[in-house]
């Protein structure tokens, strides 16, 4: 009996949502073009990362090698972006990575992903709001900061900020009202600010290279002492040169710079508001990431060429850099441009958050009142207001660095799950009650469909028996239940192997580089096992479903994305992981006390189980 209860409970955790996309009706207004989505992705991504955090990371973590950090972070984001693009083409519905996980790997993983996305968007909004406030304050001479530090100092080390940021709070509330008014109005404001942002960044890159000095990439201790009037303390200087804090600094910087590329995933939440989501979402994601990479790489190079890395201003690096090269007019141009950029980034962080909350509430995993869509504005009004208030409170109280690190963990986990889901779903047979069909696909010739179904049924009958031979090679050209289970299990195994590898690389990289035979052997064995599992996945038959975009080089590219994301995750401090654990505990309390019992899938299952006895009883009465 207990085994039956546990089995039933376990099935609830991994039940998957079925979708029928042949019905394209939506509660939202379909008004966003491909250009709108590109502007949304670029605007939400080019914000605090390029105008604020680039200076902090260059000064404390990487020096001039910050350009390599952005390159590594961009690689991770592009890999994740390709995976998001495929799912955007496959499942053009509101919900982003949350919905992708629900369709592919089950309810508990879907809730985990959605809960982490909420964390990422809330903290992203709060961090950008504080960055906006800090940048504006720097322009007017830090009067706001000085006023509140003298009167209301609330600083708690590594938790609360020095002072409550009333300006950031009001800014978040103002944009919450804008988002509640309507999508088209928000998109117009976003396009205008994004255009200004790109023009300013182009100016920064060109003028930075003209005014910069290549010597700032090869500084020595003598340069440090002469420039900073230091008295021998070289903690902020490192060893000088291009990578003053070594490979570990570049790795830590890359993990931190990953935050700079967070934002493109907001495009994936527009599935029910884009005019042509299956085409616009993949194009929007790829183009916006390419634009952002060029901008980040160019700006970080210009910044470290204009000014020695150890003199960078962490709060407002670009205006300070132009002040350092005695170009005051440029300083103010950049300050105004940065406010436009941070405004679009803030809008981009706030835009997807209520849509993920709406999707989870509509599925019953969060409280149902959050799934309300306003009939006039066609927006998830209550979810927008609630998420805006929570973000405003976070911006009001918490320190920027704390928000950024905690947000990055949630985002990296969501990216990892999406990449794993791409591999799993591409090797699964089509479920008869789960249709990933658009209206065009539904119009296919009926005879061809019947022939395909017959061939699939015969193939599954021949190949659905598990054997060691099937594990390595399936003779079928189409996926079967067995091959699908093999891939599901292999992805689980390789994820565990990757976690061990990333922890070892994160903790023992120095020993490995110095030739430690023990850790080299362990790493080699884990690598060999990962390669073997990847080979098994590769030998399984792949789904032939036609999509407007597919991730290339399957399964290597998505699995490499999972590995890179996990490696970045192990770079964060224990304090950040503790805060993350607290957030997850809170989420699981909500899920196990409410979501698991009120989900749409649970109600449908209960309805089916409840109807069967009633039918039998009715039949007996008639007889």
From TrEMBL:
UniProt domain Cationic amino acid transporter C-terminal: residue ranges: 549-599
InterPro entries: AA/rel_permease1, Cat_AA_permease, CAT_C
Subcellular location: Cell membrane
Gene3D superfamilies referenced in this protein's UniProt entry, alphabetically: Amino acid/polyamine transporter I
Gene Ontology MF annotations: L-arginine transmembrane transporter activity
Domain of life: Eukaryota
Membrane topology: Multi-pass membrane protein
Keywords associated with the record: Amino-acid transport, Cell membrane, Glycoprotein, Membrane, Transmembrane, Transmembrane helix, Transport
Claim: Acetylation is one of the keywords in the record: no
One GO cellular component term noted in the UniProt record for this chain: plasma membrane
Transmembrane regions listed in the UniProt entry: 31-53, 65-85, 97-118, 166-183, 192-210, 242-262, 283-312, 332-358, 379-400, 406-427, 486-506, 518-538, 550-570, 576-597
Catalytic function, reaction form: L-arginine(in) = L-arginine(out); L-lysine(in) = L-lysine(out); L-ornithine(in) = L-ornithine(out)
Similarity field: Belongs to the amino acid-polyamine-organocation (APC) superfamily. Cationic amino acid transporter (CAT) (TC 2.A.3.3) family.
Protein name: Cationic amino acid transporter C-terminal domain-containing protein
Organismal lineage: Eukaryota, Metazoa, Chordata, Craniata, Vertebrata
């Amino acid at each position: 009996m207990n085994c039956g209860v546990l089995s039933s409970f376990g099935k609830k955790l991994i039940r998957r949502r079925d979708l029928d996309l042949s019905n394209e009706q939506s509660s939202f207004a379909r008004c966003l073009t491909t250009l709108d989505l590109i502007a949304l992705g670029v605007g939400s991504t080019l914000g605090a990362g390029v105008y604020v955090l680039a200076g902090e990371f260059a000064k404390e973590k990487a020096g001039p090698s910050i350009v390599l950090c952005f390159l590594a972070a961009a690689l991770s984001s592009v890999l994740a972006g390709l995976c998001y693009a495929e799912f955007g083409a496959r499942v053009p519905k509101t919900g982003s990575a949350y919905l992708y996980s629900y369709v592919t790997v089950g309810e508990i993983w879907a809730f985990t992903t959605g809960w982490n996305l909420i964390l990422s968007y809330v903290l992203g909004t709060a961090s950008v709001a504080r960055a906006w406030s800090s940048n504006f304050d720097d322009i007017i001479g830090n009067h706001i900061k000085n006023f509140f530090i003298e009167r209301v100092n609330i600083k708690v080390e590594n938790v609360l900020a020095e002072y409550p940021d009333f300006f950031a709070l009001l800014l978040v509330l103002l944009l919450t009202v804008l988002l509640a008014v309507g999508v088209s109005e928000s998109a117009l404001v976003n396009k205008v600010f994004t255009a200004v942002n790109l023009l300013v960044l182009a100016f920064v890159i060109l003028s930075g290279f003209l005014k910069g000095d290549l010597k700032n990439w090869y500084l020595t201790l003598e340069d440090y002492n002469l420039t900073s009037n230091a008295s021998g303390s070289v903690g902020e200087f490192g060893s000088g040169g291009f990578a003053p804090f070594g490979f570990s600094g570049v790795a830590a910087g890359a993990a931190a710079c990953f935050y700079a590329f967070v934002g493109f995933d907001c495009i994936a939440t527009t599935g029910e508001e884009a005019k042509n989501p299956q085409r616009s979402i993949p194009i929007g994601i790829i183009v916006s990431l390419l634009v952002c990479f060029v901008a980040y790489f160019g700006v970080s190079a210009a910044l470290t060429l204009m000014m020695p890395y150890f003199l960078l201003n962490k709060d407002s690096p670009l205006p300070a850099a132009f002040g350092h090269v005695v170009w005051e007019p440029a300083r103010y141009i950049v300050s105004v441009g940065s406010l436009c950029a941070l405004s679009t980034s803030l809008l981009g962080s706030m835009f997807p958050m209520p849509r993920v909350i709406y999707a989870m509430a509509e599925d019953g995993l969060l409280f149902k009142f959050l799934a309300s869509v306003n009939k006039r504005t066609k927006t998830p009004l209550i979810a927008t207001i609630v998420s805006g208030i929570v973000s405003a409170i976070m911006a009001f109280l918490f320190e920027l660095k704390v928000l950024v690190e905690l947000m990055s963990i949630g985002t990296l986990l969501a990216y990892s799950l999406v990449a794993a889901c791409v591999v799993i779903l591409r090797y699964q047979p089509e479920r008869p009650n789960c249709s990933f069909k658009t209206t065009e696909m539904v119009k296919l010739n009926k005879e061809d469909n019947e022939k395909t179904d017959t061939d699939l049924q015969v193939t599954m009958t021949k190949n659905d028996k598990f054997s060691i031979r099937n594990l390595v090679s399936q003779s079928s050209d189409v996926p079967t239940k067995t091959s699908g289970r093999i891939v599901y299990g292999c992805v689980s195994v390789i994820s565990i192997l990757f976690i061990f590898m990333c922890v070892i690389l994160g903790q023992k990289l120095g020993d490995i580089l110095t030739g430690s035979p023990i850790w080299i052997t362990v790493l080699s064995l884990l690598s060999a096992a990962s390669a073997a599992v990847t080979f098994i996945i590769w030998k399984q038959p792949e789904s032939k479903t036609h999509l407007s975009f597919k991730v290339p080089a399957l399964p290597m590219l998505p699995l490499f994305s999972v590995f890179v994301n996990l490696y970045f995750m192990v770079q964060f401090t224990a304090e950040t992981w503790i805060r993350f654990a607290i957030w997850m505990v809170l989420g699981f309390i909500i899920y196990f006390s409410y979501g698991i019992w009120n989900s749409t899938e649970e109600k449908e299952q209960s309805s089916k189980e409840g109807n069967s006895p009633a039918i039998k009883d009715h039949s007996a009465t008639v007889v």
